[in-house]
## 1
Amino acid sequence: AAGVIQSPRHLIKEKRETATLKCYPIPRHDTVYWYQQGPGQDPQFLISFYEKMQSDKGSIPDRFSAQQFSDYHSELNMSSLELGDSALYFCASSAQRNNEQFFGPGTRLTVL
Amino acid sequence: KQEVTQIPAALSVPEGENLVLNCSFTDSAIYNLQWFRQDPGKGLTSLLLIQSSQREQTSGRLNASLDKSSGRSTLYIAASQPGDSATYLCAGGSSNTGKLIFGQGTTLQVKP
């Protein structure tokens, strides 16, 4: 069965650089969620989209932005990267809100 | 604001033992409760989803229950195996947008 695809899987950036993370949801899933998991921490909700519209926002810095495109894939754009942004970034998708969420393998971002 | 707590933080058991992982949440207006497994440095694998109208779900050797009135969920693992060793996370969906609030996880080690 098709799963959530995230790219790239690993990313190394310098401080103050920008990064773009991509997420391709499971086919026919209309809802995408982004989570950030720091070392030794539980995942924290960042932002979500339903039918290409932002539906909820969590503890996402103003330096970050995201959108969902017409083909339902989503991109998380991160600017002015800081050392503290180093984390695993997960994308999850579901068929409508409040249904089971399926997570991608994550993008490991390292900021040097 | 929804808060999710998991006890214990770590658990070590001999192979073949039945065990229970505990999850508590503060907001009884919960939409659903989802249990995940996470291997070190890996993504989250969905194990079971319990909707707010349900009391339990079963999948193979796993059984999860939900008691909204007491703010508790349990994950029961029967006949544990070394391959069950991982971190188990529970997450509550407490808004109509579906975002998940995670507990800190229980790290399980099953010894052969």
## 2
Amino acid sequence: DGGITQSPKYLFRKEGQNVTLSCEQNLNHDAMYWYRQDPGQGLRLIYYSQIVNDFQKGDIAEGYSVSREKKESFPLTVTSAQKNPTAFYLCASRLLGGGDNQPQHFGDGTRLSIL
Amino acid sequence: GQNIDQPTEMTATEGAIVQINCTYQTSGFNGLFWYQQHAGEAPTFLSYNVLDGLEEKGRFSSFLSRSKGYSYLLLKELQMKDSASYLCAVRDWGQAGTALIFGKGTTLSVSS
């Protein structure tokens, strides 16, 4: 079945460590997004990409980095510069050119905690 | 600026009807989405409105008034499985790419 796969489901980070969250989609979607969700907060945009080898910062990009080497993959690295990384991270994708009513489809998320 | 407001929590009983309101302020409105999210899971798409009026999809309906910056999600014949968070999200021409601006979500608790 087509969908978005995020891994791992749970991740623990030590102080000073970089960690990478995986996001893979087989929906042939053009655009991919990373959001962060904190309790009592809405989803906040970290980074997005509309085409391979191109990505843009969202509202809270500091302390994060991404790459888009393949259409199917959009990994997110949480660097040691992100001082409050504990959150639920959601990856989404969307088909561009299919009409404005095309929704974003979400993966099941990765819950990141600090050890 | 951009702002989306929803009630934080709502409660209802099985079989009832509930209306979840969403008000928004954006500079370049280009569509409103409703998502359902069960705790610890991915948000799933419920509805899309870009023109004024009501969109009906089974037990769920969504309404939009662009002049008032207002939408609501109407859930009929409530079931226990409808207990979830409901997210209102707006697409704004001025927002990064095709990303959405999300409200904080409304947690709905359905009791028997």
## 3
Amino acid sequence: AQSVTQLGSHVSVSEGALVLLRCNYSSSVPPYLFWYVQYPNQGLQLLLKYTSAATLVKGINGFEAEFKKSETSFHLTKPSAHMSDAAEYFCAVSGLGGFQKLVFGTGTRLLVSP
Amino acid sequence: DAGVTQSPTHLIKTRGQHVTLRCSPISGHKSVSWYQQVLGQGPQFIFQYYEKEERGRGNFPDRFSARQFPNYSSELNVNALLLGDSALYLCASSTGPSETQYFGPGTRLLVL
């Protein structure tokens, strides 16, 4: 079975500060890992994905994440937060196989203050 | 290019009723997946369809069913609605069943 744990239901940063959103995964097979962002009253937008190529993955809007197998982690970072980054962020895992069933974490709400 | 579209955007039903939600995938995508997102939680997988065949099913009761049409659009049906079915229902499409999923805006269902 696969699962993800997102540490911290809320993270608050100041505009211009480093953003760090934590995600740890559990998977019995080599995983695919994803970060999605959800703005209020909208669907999910793909930020980035790890599919067993480079361990440092760059995504949209200046976000990146590093796959660390030894720590079973896939934390999301951005060097400098913008007000527009305020949203809900979801980490998700899927295994290799015939179909891609995404298993999501409970989400982390990022709050950005001026 | 148009993204995934879903209809309706909002829906209010009463307990015991039936509901049909619709999804049109991105052009060229042949796989559609459905997820339920209850307020304050992450999305939960309901179904995946590829080439009109069910490829995966999550842990949902038989009141939930779906189908995919020859044009790759899809319907999610829920019978005998319960208050706990109130949620945002998300549709995602992908080129194939093991490819990256792209989500639509969702249908928000409220069951009274």
## 4
Amino acid sequence: DTGVSQDPRHKITKRGQNVTFRCDPISEHNRLYWYRQTLGQGPEFLTYFQNEAQLEKSRLLSDRFSAERPKGSFSTLEIQRTEQGDSAMYLCASSPPAGAYEQYFGPGTRLTVT
Amino acid sequence: SQQGEEDPQALSIQEGENATMNCSYKTSINNLQWYRQNSGRGLVHLILIRSNEREKHSGRLRVTLDTSKKSSSLLITASRAADTASYFCATDAGNAGGTSYGKLTFGQGTILTVHP
């Protein structure tokens, strides 16, 4: 399968714990995005990478959130000191180099904070 | 914050009928995209229309864009039960120079149910 993959698919954690999610984009895609989606809502943009550079970060992301994309390949999203309000589906998407704007989404990681 | 507002929030039709969903947005855009989401396949890109285009077709899909009214519509013709899903419009406002880098702002979606 050559689509976007995310790991884990589900994560249950206790409040205050740290969690890390991984996204593997389609191999030739240099742009990578993270979104968060809560029930009944559309996805909300969190951050964007072009190659290894993080070019934009949403104001939605508090200091507890950090994302990396070392070597411009896979990406990780870490949430420190999780809160119940962090419970959501975290979606990763990738897109080819400039000129094609459609995004290819992974299956998401569903986070539940208890 | 959500830029797009889809209308209706939910739509229930019979197989074979057409389904029309509308999307309104607030700021100028580089392009507007429609996505489908169901539990089986996640979010899937359907069609993209650029700000200088007024209508686009892809198979049974027809998208229109009216930038003066900041609105778009998605028409699905001859619907099938497999079209049952949530449909989202997503706007790409581009950067200050108007160039897209792909940051999408999604609406809340329309839940479409197609009855066999």
